[in-house]
Write a structure and sequence with these properties.
The protein has 9 helices and 10 strands. By secondary structure, it is an alpha/beta fold. It has a 7-stranded mixed beta sheet with strand order 6-5-4-7-8-10-9, sandwiched between helices. Helix 1 (3-20) runs antiparallel to helix 4 (101-113), helix 2 packs antiparallel against helix 5 and helix 4 (101-113) packs across helix 5 (128-135). The relative contact order is 0.14. The mean pLDDT is 90.
Length: 276
């Protein structure tokens, strides 16, 4: 699958959708209705992505819309309650603001194509990245501190019969050695300027404590190109200092739509790194 073409087409689709969206929902996103030349997803995978949205209580409405000649389903929802609950925890590094379901799928395709077989989503929210990992036959684990969000994950697991192993735990305290990891990919759920750097540092230190794991591990960071947010640390979406400090090497990056960049021209960059 052409990942670059897929991500570019998804970003174009999002831009056109955002430009013409006149709804009033707190959050909104789109998933192609059927497989096509631009979005050549396996039929069953696409069905499971829609199933995730349909069974997820944060979405309260859906409708069909054709965007750039692509038939899509628009999902509208509200995360205010979960956003507020997610910031009540002392060690929470970022409020609940998820990536798009389609973006989560693209990110996990990359994980699979890079050869990783285990996926650990740190700050997993409603579990969409871990869920997509399971759809792609990766052994997934979601680590989320907020019990309300883990309840959503458990509900989705029950209703879809896709078990992506939700864990209600503080990622800063979690013992990752219990997962018996061999070649994992960690997704860090937090921007560097919002405390994600503290979370990432803790995870990296824990990886270093597990024998023979460092050389077989990938760490993925969500960044931002907002100059206001980044201050002077603008390379690697705000992660350059941490990447340099921990001897990480970028192996690829990709930009994808997220709920927090819905009304912005620039989408969210994700940086895939490994230990040098």
């Amino acid at each position: 699958m052409d990942i670059k073409g897929l991500s570019d087409d998804l970003c174009l689709l999002k831009k056109e959708f955002a430009k013409n969206y006149h709804g009033t929902s707190h959050i909104q996103e789109i998933i192609p209705e059927i497989s096509s030349e631009k979005f050549p997803l396996p039929k069953n995978d696409l069905k499971l992505l829609h199933n995730f949205a349909e069974k997820n209580p944060i979405y309260h409405n859906s409708y069909k819309e054709t965007i750039l000649e692509v038939s899509c389903i628009v999902y509208e929802g509200d995360i205010n309650e979960y956003w507020l609950n997610s910031i009540k925890h002392g060690s929470s590094c970022q409020p609940f603001y998820p990536t798009w379901i389609m973006s989560a799928y693209v990110m996990t395709i990359i994980a699979k194509e890079l050869g990783y077989s285990e996926l650990i989503d740190i700050g997993s929210g409603d579990g969409r990245i871990a869920y997509c990992g399971k759809v792609l036959n990766l052994h997934s684990h979601g680590i989320e501190i907020d019990a309300g969000l883990v309840d959503i994950q458990n509900k989705i697991t029950d209703l879809t019969q896709i078990n992506f192993n939700p864990n209600c735990a503080d990622a800063l305290e979690y013992d990752y050695s219990t997962l018996q990891l061999k070649n994992p990919i960690f997704f860090i759920g937090g921007l560097p300027q919002m405390g994600g750097d503290i979370l990432a540092t803790s995870i990296i230190e824990k990886i270093n404590l597990i024998d023979n794991l460092r050389q077989d591990t990938c760490v993925v960071f969500a960044g931002s190109y907002s100059k206001h947010q980044l201050s002077e640390n603008q390379s690697h979406g705000g992660w350059s200092s941490l990447i340099k400090k921990h001897n990480l090497k970028e192996i690829m990056n990709i930009s994808l739509p997220t709920i927090w960049t819905f009304d912005q021209d620039i989408d969210t960059p994700y940086f895939y790194t490994r230990f040098d």
